[in-house]
User: Fold these one by one.
Assistant:
Number 1:
Amino acid sequence: MKDISLHILDVAQNSIAAGATRVEISVREKPWLDELEIAIEDNGNGMTDEALSRVEDPFYTTRTTRKVGLGIPLLKHSAEQAGGSFAIRSVPGKGTSLVAVFGRSHIDRPPVGDIAGVISSLAGMNPGMDFIYRHAAAAQGSTGEYVFDTREVKAVLGDIPLSEPAVILYLKELIEANTECAE
């Protein structure tokens, strides 16, 4: 994966495949700790203890289209290589959550990438799902948080679907205008 946004996309696609109806994605910038934290939580099928114990193995996958599952192992490796950590938990029938922490200024931290494009694309390609994106950043003693929630957007748009190309573009621009992540 070239950047963190692609890791987010991969994990969100896993959530979609697991039958999730809600995916929450959080980016927390913690400059006082020199950390960039990515958290993703879904309400999908979850995993058994056996599947969870094997999910970090690149040669394990539940997919039938290929014999390897590199997404989670690559995310874990990327976070740890950048001086961070990785944790995942899952409850069958309730969902899965993971947290990847990157050393914010670490030379091996991948760039953040186009998170706004990823979130708006996920929302547009999966209009029946709910996506909540939180971006928390601290600067000079103050903290700010931006929350993008497709439930709110759907309420405002009414009959206009999130899958409309103009809506996807607008959502991307809206998220970009309200967030800036440390590159």
Number 2:
Amino acid sequence: MDQKQADNTFKTPRMVPPFWLALTIVSMWALDRWLPLLDLWEKPINYIGIFFIIIGLVLNGWAAGRFLLVKTGLIPFTPVTSLVKTGPFRISRNPMYLGMLSIALGAAIMLGSLSPFVVLPIFFIIIRNRFVIPEEAMLEQVLGEPYLQFKSERRRWL
């Protein structure tokens, strides 16, 4: 492995973002089931959550498709071959994480009590601290000036 390849190899976390999303949804369900703080709404109003889940799935699929199209690493901290600036990356540096947040928000709305909403900020902090901030540092190191330019043109979230 030459130096350029060595610089583009980072430790892939064992628990990738979809794991944290699944854990978040299971935690929200458990809190709603066994510790519902306050019922916020009932059926059919809670079905509004489906809209947020669909938006999240579409964002994730669209962004993942852009990565696959240019054959760059889809899993966090896997080798990066190019900078994706098209599709949902035109409006956010992190559309896949936004998609996951939208899915989690939709699940909380679907459950209907206040308890699931307690987990949302925890999920956000985990994703930001374990993935977003370290990924940005990695991309700055690997891609250099093109990524810094992209970073100055796009917001982290929206």
Number 3:
Amino acid sequence: MTKRIVITGGPGTGKTVLVRELERRGYSCFHEIIREMTWAAKKEEDPGTHLVNPLTFVRDPLAFNRRILRGRIDQFNDAWDLQDPLVFYDRGIPDVVAYMDYFNQEYNGEFSEPCQDFRYDHVFLLPPWREIYTRDDERLESFEQACEIHECLHKTYRSFAYEVHTLDFGPVEERLRQMLDRLNNGNE
């Protein structure tokens, strides 16, 4: 049976690097979908408003969140076709709710129900790491905002009854070893 593992955290915590290394080693991975969506949204909107997360500048944040949610549900369902023992996700379905909470956006069961219906086996939360944090054209938050988002992510996953594992700071190889040791040893 396939185990689904979410790697999450605020912006700039090393998630993507970790997922790319897992993929390089032959693991099945689903990549973050928001970067491409952010790039597309920035092309459609007033460039003067691109100060933080696209949820603050898209014309219809609810529709934008629906697209993110649909994309993550599609990723979840696409894993049914895989025969791999471990499948990794760069962010999970509850991340959508965490970001909506962070930006004080209202939502209903349309967003919270999938968090209960589509369950992951493990959640690894990468903490904010000032030494590696950088802003770029798709990562628009300040480090302080990244820390606040980290807290929202932790709170949200816990609210959906996940045990959240934190990975220590360190080189990607060490973080990978720490995560795989926990998965292989059955420490839940």
Number 4:
Amino acid sequence: MDMSGGEKILEAHASRIDKLFAKAQASASAFGGISRERFKDALLRSVASRFRDVRPTQQDVAAYLDSLYIEDLALATACREASEPAWEHFISRFRPDLYSAARAICRHDEAAARELADSLYGELFGAGRSGQQGSGERKSLFDYFHGRSKLSTWLRAILSQRHVDAVRASRRMESLDDEQTEHDVPAHGARHPDSSGRTESDPDRARYLSLLQVALTAALAALAPRDRLRLAYYYVQDLTLAQIGRLLGEHEATASRHLERTRRELRKQVDAALRDEKRLSDAQIRLCYEYAMEEWPFDLTRALSERD
């Protein structure tokens, strides 16, 4: 769906957009407000991104608009426009969480964590936006935030991906002469792999966990709001299937079937992302899950509960 098509769709939801804008303005008062034009542009980009390859019904668009994190979208939009009060608000609100997430990703290497978190600010701000550099202006990472997940969840996913990118870049810099083939003799003191192919101390462990976090966070963010809510009820609030059914107006057996379907879809999407996007083998994907079962360094409970 192109932007012009999205604008026509939004015109059919003018009253809903008025309510969303009022909600955005209420939250934006903490950092100076946001213009209706900028807010509508943000909604337009969000709708166009969500329904890129489909023609949605009015009910689809209405449900999608109602599922957005409007307060976070308003803040991201103001930061995207380089609003100084918005940036001050963003930094005071999110800097502690960013440092905490970076420390977890970097396995408590304080220097690496601070470098990882601080490097993200330049990308988010989009240095050069207020002026020209060459023939064009740089983009802010906020261009890619559409309010489909909490801003904190989105930021943690980007941190994880940046860490993975840095690991890959450092490995590309290594000399091929230092790499072992399957026929090489292990170096002195090297640890032998067990039956699963995993070494006693796998240097790829942090990378596999980061890749899994990125893939799973993205898969959760892409869920339909009702499916995500059902997962949150079951895994976060520890409700029974009968209680979930009563809350969602469905039979206990229906709630059970939907949960199982959602779990299968999540596993399928995560596996596909790890295999097709991250280029992991089946054995490496198994290691991702094994390491996650042994040590769960990212808080998906929080990721689910943030939509309640």
